[in-house]
Amino acid sequence: MSYVFGAVDNALICGFVLAPGRAGRPIGLAEALSWLAQGTEQTAEEFIWLHFNLTDTTAEKWMLANLSLPPEFFEALREGSRSTRIEDASDNLIAVVNDVAFEFSFDPSEIASLWVSVSARVLVSARVHPLRSIDRLRQAVKDGACFGSSVELLNHLMNDQGDVLVRIVREATLQVDNIEDGLLVGRLQQKRGELGKLRRVLVRLQRLLAPEPGALFRLLRQPPPWVTAHDLDELRQATEEFSLVIRDLSALQERIKLLQEEMVAQVGEQTNRSVFTLTVVTVLALPINIMAGMFGMNVGGIPLSEHPHGFSIIAVIVLGFTAVAGWLAFRKKD
């Protein structure tokens, strides 16, 4: 029995009926059910895209009740799987795509997942947090972009994700360039913390994206029978683009690591200079402290206590020992 929604429905973010050479037509859940009930004869060239908001608890219930989605899709939703992949499940493509939030400020918590199920006639996507790539795809459909198949829609989503990641790498590179310029002129204030935060974000992005090329390669070898050769070529290009992005992420992480090591070296050098200065001051003050301690005990038999030039003699002796100590301290400074 179908799950009935109320008058105000927040579970569906957007829905479209698409066909080759024709702009997408917006639909709601009731119209989507009517379209699904028509059968393939009347809608042979058409396919639909339904995008759900998982923060609404009725979204998963509606999908379970009204859509013939493979169990692997719901298992991925419930497990909260974060590893990026696209796999074949009962002639359906199940994709877990990692993306970034709208106001991405290089915080690891702003990376979230999008779950997608693709068949020849139905593409279903679901997310918890608003994400950039899927919103770019929704805007493209609203602006009248035409898609020939559901896999072409998925390819567009992946290309949008690749563009977002390339932009993130460029912004991260600019930040690293500014930090490196500051390092060259000796400005280290708060730079180590910024580099550490940036490196954590890039490591997380790479960890979440790294499985995707391998998963796509396995899919390309044994695709579902309804996927066309053109769509497979597009998937192959998406694989290559993600490989390049991951390579750029690795190179940028290595550069950040070298900068962190350079900062540690500079901080260590400054610490060594401070310790050396403190040691020299201590050594130079040692003869004076020893003499002051000995002559300040106020016991009998203190030498030169009755001598008219006793202070001058002691001062010369202290200065002599201080000069020797200074010479010993500075002779191996280099």
From TrEMBL:
Keywords: Cell inner membrane, Cell membrane, Coiled coil, Ion transport, Membrane, Transmembrane, Transmembrane helix, Transport, Zinc. The keyword Ion transport applies. The keyword Acetylation does not apply. Residues 235-269 form a coiled coil. It is found in: Cell membrane. The chain crosses the membrane at residues 275-297, 309-330. InterPro entries: CorA_cytoplasmic_dom, CorA_TM1_TM2, MgTranspt_CorA/ZnTranspt_ZntB. It is a multi-pass membrane protein. Belongs to the CorA metal ion transporter (MIT) (TC 1.A.35) family. This is Transporter. It comes from Roseateles oligotrophus. The lineage of its organism: Bacteria, Pseudomonadati, Pseudomonadota, Betaproteobacteria, Burkholderiales.
